[in-house]
Amino acid sequence: MNYTFQWGEAFIEVPYLLGGAWITLHLSFIGFWSGATIGLFGALGKTYGGPVTVKLINWYVIFFTNTPGLVTAFFIFFGLPEFGILLSPYHTILLNIALNSGAYMTEIMRGGFVSVHKTELEAAETMGFTLLQQLRYVIVPHIAKVLFAPLSNWYIWMILGTAMAAIFGVEELTGRVFNRAAETFRSIELYTIAAGMYVAITILASSILVVIGRWAFRVKVKVF
Amino acid sequence: MHHLEVDGLTATYDGKILVLDGVSIQVGKGEIVSVIGPSGSGKSTLLRVIMGLLKPKAGHVKLDGDEVDYGNKKSVKALRDRFSIVFQQFNLFQNMDALRNVTIAPVKIRKRDAQKVEKEAIELLGKVGLGDKLHSYPDELSGGQQQRVAIARALALRPEILLLDEVTSALDPELVNEVLDAIRILAKDGMTMMIVSHEMGFVREISTEVIMMDEGKVIEVGSAEQIFDNPQTSRCQDFVGKILRH
Ligand SMILES: Nc1ncnc2c1ncn2[C@@H]1O[C@H](COP(=O)(O)OP(=O)(O)OP(=O)(O)O)[C@@H](O)[C@H]1O
Ligand SMILES: [Mg+2]
Fold first, then answer.
1. Which residue, B23, B68, B177, B200, shows the most beta carbons closer than 10 Å to its own?
2. Which pTM value belongs to this model?
């Protein structure tokens, strides 16, 4: 191997990269909750909606779950301006992440709705629960528990997926590595540091999720 | 006047086939009426209609002489305040531990004092032999234990009448007795019950009256001795004969 490592030059960039990691977290967090909101309505629509609603949601889900995120990102990036909608790269990517994960979460959450035991609700009904009380005491806690593990996994997956934003000039973690690698040529060192940061972020996020899962939902999620 | 009076009850799921076809049953206070009959004869449907889960097509249900109006929410609610049902598939709330399964309805729905309810729930769970499982979740309990929690949950609502729908048939044989024992204790306390069961020995031992159903109709009503030892109808003879030969 002829490569001479020069870590010093790369380590100077750590604060700059950490700033990028912060944007990565932002992007994944906002993207996740936007996607979760879309997914919730998508799942509700698919479970309780009429045939037209179901069909529209299906098209949306099929489109986004069967095209690479990168392709839909380009699609939005170049498509929207044609309609006179100009978004910053950050917001374009955010929109793409939200739509993309919304499609996946529609499917994940629908599984949650479907898995509510009808018999549990019947028992509740005979015990005098109103529909609203059934929702509050039986349906929502059940769905939250069932969905906790798959949504946690999805969130971790999303954090990594945000790296794609670099291609569009968003200065999140990978984007900032792009920038500095081009200037300093310390690519391997910088990517090593970035990889370490990604690992740290996902381990941290997983651990927090595991703790929340155990305490709040009695879900035994395993991380490693 | 009977405590519970079912008169000419008719019900259907699809609008065509009568799953219940003019069923009449009387249950007096403190009586234990068992319903037996082949699979698909409408036993569960009878209990479901009484509880207001399926609207009757004709006939009526009277409680202490007052007719229940199944089209009226208030009337159904009043009925549900006085009945509890335990299903074949325990139907416990999976997201709550045993104690909370028992306390939730009395506290959140009936708005009774939380501390008193909890004390009572602990006693009830003790009575069905689960004093040490208060904080276990349904998925940590055996089928028999879950069914006993379901019975405690039903009792916590202080029902005047308890409906039990094949509460042992989803259980492994060695777990059946622990649940039957719990019901025996209730019988000793004078609980009014309507029991659907395939446990013929148990039915015979515990019932004030036995009702044999087939194809949505009551075929024969009588004491346990009559139904099992001296059935009057050929249909009942067939059924009892088949079961006892097993
Ligand atoms: N939800 C339903 N929709 C349509 N038909 C139903 C439904 N539930 C029961 N049935 C039909 O109604 C009839 C009576 O069913 P029911 O469950 O009351 O019988 P059962 O006497 O309780 O039988 P088992 O001993 O097997 O529990 C059966 O023919 C059954 O197929
Ligand atoms: Mg049945």
1. B23
2. 0.77
